[in-house]
Amino acid sequence: MSERVKLVVLGGSALATPCLLDAMGRGSAALGYDVVLWGRDEERLRLVTEVARQLVATYPRLDAAVSASTRLAEAVEGADFCLNQMRIGGLQGRFFDETFPRDFGVPGEETVGPGGFSNARRGIPAILEVCRTLERAAPQAVILNLTNPSSMIQLAIRKYTSLQVIGTCDSPVSLMTLIASAVSLRREDLEFDVGGMHHFTWIVSARHKGKERLPEALQDPKLVEKLGIDAELLSCLGAVPSPYLRYYVHPDRVMAKTAGKPPRAQELMGLQEAMLADFRTSPAGTIPGSLQRRGAVWYEAIVVPTLLALAEKRNGELVLSVDNGGTYPWLPPQAIIEAPVPITAGVVQPPRAAVLPIDVAGRVQANCAYETLAVEAIVEGDRGKAIRALMSNGMVSGYDQARGLLGAMWP
User: Fold this and answer.
1) What is the per-residue pLDDT for 1?
2) Does the pLDDT of residue 241 top 50, yes or no?
3) E strands of 163-268, at which residues?
């Protein structure tokens, strides 16, 4: 790595991208950074770049030069890090993912279940094509993946390219913060045992000075409400699952709660149009007021801490998605797990395993089978593996439903 760090943002025309530079300022980035925003929409790239530069100017100690390019090979040449935040198919694609499963009695969501499979089917081939350019122009680059469904995208990159990739998601950070709040402590005051996969993670321990505090947190009504699962079930589990578990254990409740309401994609479409208008009309030299309404918490919660830990050779521990290796012997070594990952002087260490209850481990194994088969099916164009993948997913009830779902997204 040179004296300056080159960070390329794939999908840099996303209107929330300036929040990345804001998070770098808040995170006290100490090195010099050349941040290149890559995208296909020239107008949006120009608007986003201007706002990003304005945010950099609010941090006198932040040394970050922001530029933009629509030419991929030029943008990634010599990159040290690439942040992948591409949304293949845009919000229209997300709208489809969140709506078509309902016709088959399944909740729609862009990362888990059939909606996540549909999202991966669009995303994986396009992202692997970008990775081919990276392999030629920046084989040394570390990809920080933010694109959903994250662990499936990451598995495809690891399995079908030679590139390094680490998955980042703010969901575990939010979950740990909720637990800490439930016991009137800061997140930093607790030591957590976390295990599972992206959006399929479980927190099985939260200790403060050696004392287990998780049972106390499980009684907190706010935590129960946030998770969206029955209080009795949470008590039976004795662990805090990802909020996405509700799609598996309470699909009927999710369907009823969302019936007749616009999907999240539709809300984001409206917000995006309002933000774009704000970006276009804001006076030169000002930061659009709509920027903060997008709520891009992921940059400050996990993306920037990961970037700075690696680039600036910091020490710490972050919950990330990485190769399983030998962490969980009951999962394949190439499986992508989400776990606490120690970082020593910028070097990623083996993830720290959690002791998962037998039923939780069984659910994680089934989810791993689904993701592995789904990625292989998409890359190989194998409909048989696609059927097997959907039948391995806990949101799908059988062959007939799997066949119908597949027909809707893979004619």
Assistant:
1) 45
2) yes
3) 164-167, 191-197, 200-208, 211-212, 240-241
H or E element: which one contains 4?
A: strand 4-10
Length of the chain: 411
For residue 337, give the 3-state DSSP assignment: strand
Q: Which pair of structure tokens corresponds to residue 266?
A: 């539709």
Distance, CA of 216 to CA of 147 (rounded, Å): 34
Full-model pTM: 0.96
Q: Kindly give, in sequence order, each residue whose CB lies less than 8 Å from that of residue 230, ignoring residues fewer than 6 positions away.
A: 249, 250
Which pairs with CB-CB distance under 8 Å and at least 24 residues apart come from 400-405?
401/104, 401/105, 401/106, 404/104, 405/100, 405/101, 405/104, 405/106, 405/114, 405/117
**Structure tokens belonging to residue 46:** 């120009």
Residue 152 to residue 318: CA distance in whole angstroms: 20
Q: How far is 50 from 33, CA to CA, in rounded Å?
A: 17
Question: Which region holds residue 71: left if phi is over 0, alpha if psi is between -120 and 50, else beta?
Answer: beta
Query: What does the pLDDT read at residue 77?
Result: 97
The pairing of strands 81-84 and 4-10 is: parallel
Count of C-beta atoms within a 10 Å radius of residue 1: 13
Q: Which helix (DSSP H) or strand (DSSP E) does residue 226 occupy?
A: helix 221-227
Amino acid at 216: E
List, in order, residues 6 or more apart from 341 with CB less than 8 Å away. Answer: 317, 318, 319, 320, 322, 348, 349, 351, 352
Question: How many angstroms separate the CA atoms of 136 and 222, rounded?
Answer: 49
Q: Which residue in 336, 326, 401 sits closest to 370, CA to CA?
A: 336
